Amino acid sequence: MKKSIFLLAYVLIVSNFCSAQLKPIWDTAVYSGDVLPELLVLENGQYLTITRHNKDRSVANAWKFDADGAVILHDSIDFNFTISACGKCLEEIDSNRIIYAQTLFQSSDTVSVQLVEFDAQLNILKSKKYRFQDSLKSQIWGLHKFSDSLIYITGYVYREVNRFSLLLACFDTAFNLKWEREYKRPGNTVGGYWGFDVEPTSDKGFLLGALNTTFPNSPTIIKGQILKVDSVGILQWSKIINPKKTTHFGTSGVQLGKRTDGKYIYVGEELINSDNSRMRFGIINEMGQTLKDTLLGPTIHDFGTFGFTKTLDGNFVTGGGTLENGMQGHVYKFSEDGDSIWHRFYSYGDPQDGSALYSLKSTADTGLIMAGAFFDTYNNPTNRGLYNWILKVDKHGCDSPGCDDIGLLEKSSANIHLAFYPNPAKDNLNLKWVNSENSRLGILNLEIYNLHGQLMIQKDLESETGVIRKIDVSDLKPGHYLLKLSDDKRVWETEILSIQY
Q1: Which of 59, 58, 52, 56 has its CA nearest to residue 33?
Q2: Cα–Cα distance, 309 to 319 (Å, whole number)
Q3: Torsion of CA 320, 323, 325, 331, to 10 degrees
Q4: pLDDT confidence of 437, banded at 50, 70, 90?
C-alpha cells in the first residue's frame, strides 16, 4: 500500500479554534514497534525512542533520530524475560548517560522494575532489578528526574489477587535505593491505587496522580486520586476525584502539571458513556483545595490523556488514539486555565489502519515531537504487525501556511444561538438563529471553509431572527467543514458541518 500522510483537524467549540488538513513537518515509521513507546529529546537536539518489539516480547528496540527525522542509530536489547513499557520511563542524566525503566515479568510470582543505564551509543552501563521490600510484585508507570542526583519511580505493588497499592520509590543515579513507600487504600476492598504521575511541590514534597480502582461487581469503578506526600514520601493528605458522568476514569491515569502561579492542574480521561469520553480538568493547590473542576475538549471515542506534558509556550498537550473515522492519533492543546487551543487528528497511512500517539515532548522550536504506534491493516493483518511512529509538528500541530489562521482565538457569543440541520447534510442545509440581544445586527456573513482553509461557500444573509434559511451545499464533497457566522464587528458562531457520502 502506498504510504500517505495527512492530518484531519476538528474545530473545538469550547473556546479557541484552529483547523486544517496539512502535512506535518516530518514523520516516519520503523518496523517492530509496540504501544506506549518511550520518547526523549536529548540535550544535543536529537530524539531517542525505545519500544518493546511486537513479536519478541523480551526485546526492546531503540532508535535515535536527528532533527530532520533521519535514523542515526538503531539497536536491540534482549532482556530474556517479557517486558512492558510505561510510555514515560526515559530520562537523560547527562550527555552520555540515559536511564530507561520497564516492568520485567520473570515469572507469575516475580515481577520487577528494571532500571537500565545506557551511554550515548546505547551500550548498557549498568542495570538493577527492584521489587518493593525485595519481595512483592512491582510494576512501573512513570520514571521522574527532578534533579541531577535523584530519580523517582511510581507505579503499583501487587499484594494479592486484585489488591494493589501505590508505589513511590527514590533512587540515586547509581540505582541505590534511598527510600520506598506504598500507599494503601483504606479498608480491605478489592482493587486499590495505581500510581501514574509525580509533580514536585514548593515544600520539597510531591503530588502523586493515581487511579482508585474497585472491583466489587461489573462494571469496574475507577476514580481519580491525588495524594500529597513530604520530601521522603510520608503521606500528608489524599483526595478522591469522583467521575461526573459515569462510574470511571480511563486507564491513562491522572496526570499532573504546574501552573505559572504555583498551583497545579490535573487531567484524566473520563468516560461519558460506554463509547465516548472527554478530558477531566482541574486546578488544585498544595493544601488539596479544588479551585476548578470541569470537562474539556470534544466528546470522542477514547479521548485518552497519554503523553501529558507542558509545552515551551506555557500551555499543555495530551494525546492518544481514537476510533473517529478509522483509528487515528489525536493531540489536544489547552492553556493552564483550561482554554482549548487546538485539537488535531493524525494518521500514518490509511485512516482505516490503526494510528495512535502516546508520548509527546516539547522541542526547542516550541513545536512537538510525538511517538506512537501504527498498525498497517493491509500489509500486516495480525495484531503484531506494528510500527513505531515518530511525528514532528510545530506549535500549531502543523507547518503549512494558514494552519493557525482559520478561526484562531475566535469565540462564539452567548447572544446569538445558531441551529443548523440536518448534520450531516447532503443537498441542503437549514439555518436558523435567535438574537437574544434583540438588537439589529445588519447583514450577517455566512462562510463555509474546508479543512484546508479554503472558502467554499459565502453568503450575505439578513439578520432577522427565527427565520429558516435554506443553503445549497450539494456541490460540497463529503467530509468535514467549518461553518462561520459573523457580522462586520465580530464572529458570532463557529460550528462543525459534516457532508455525508
Answers
A1: 52
A2: 10
A3: -10
A4: low
Looking only at the bridges linking them, the beta strands covering 386-393 and 26-31 are antiparallel
C-alpha cell at 416: 446569538
E strands of 323-454, at which residues? 328-334, 340-348, 354-362, 368-375, 386-393, 416-421, 428-435, 443-449
Greatest CA span in the chain, whole angstroms? Answer: 76
User: Three-state secondary structure along 160-227?
Assistant: ECCEEEEEEEEEECCCCEEEEEEECCCCCCCEEEEEEEEEECCCCCEEEEEEEEECCCCCCEEEEEEE
CB burial string 61-80: b at 16+ within 10 A, e below: bbbbbebeeeeeeeeebebe
Instruction: Please report, for the chain, the start and end positions of each structural domain, with discontinuous segments joined by +.
Output: 5-393, 416-499
234: which DSSP letter? -
Residue 441 CA to residue 275 CA, distance in Å, equals 41
Strand order of the β-sheet with 59-65 is 38-41, 47-52, 59-65, 71-78
Beta carbons of 243 and 272 less than 8 angstroms apart: no
CA distance 126 to 134: 19
| CATH number, domain 5-393, options 3.10.20.30, 2.60.40.1120, 2.120.10.10, 3.50.30.10 | 2.120.10.10
Q: Return the CATH fold of 416-499.
A: Immunoglobulin-like (2.60.40)
- pTM listed for this prediction: 0.75
Mean of per-residue pLDDT scores for the chain? 81
Residue 127 CB: number of other CB atoms within 10 A? Answer: 15
Residue 478 preceded by cis peptide, ω within 30: no
116 forms bridges with which residues in the sheet?
A: 100, 127
Q: What contacts 271, CB < 8 A, 6 or more positions away?
A: 243, 245, 246, 247, 248, 249, 250, 277
pLDDT digits (tens, 9 = 90+) for 103-122: 999 988 899 999 999 999 99
Q: Compute the distance between CA of residue 265 and CA of residue 336 in angstroms, rounded to an integer.
A: 7
Strand 191-200, strand 163-172: pairing: parallel
* 218, pLDDT greater than 60: no
- Residue 24 and residue 399 in contact, taking contact as beta carbons nearer than 8 Å: yes
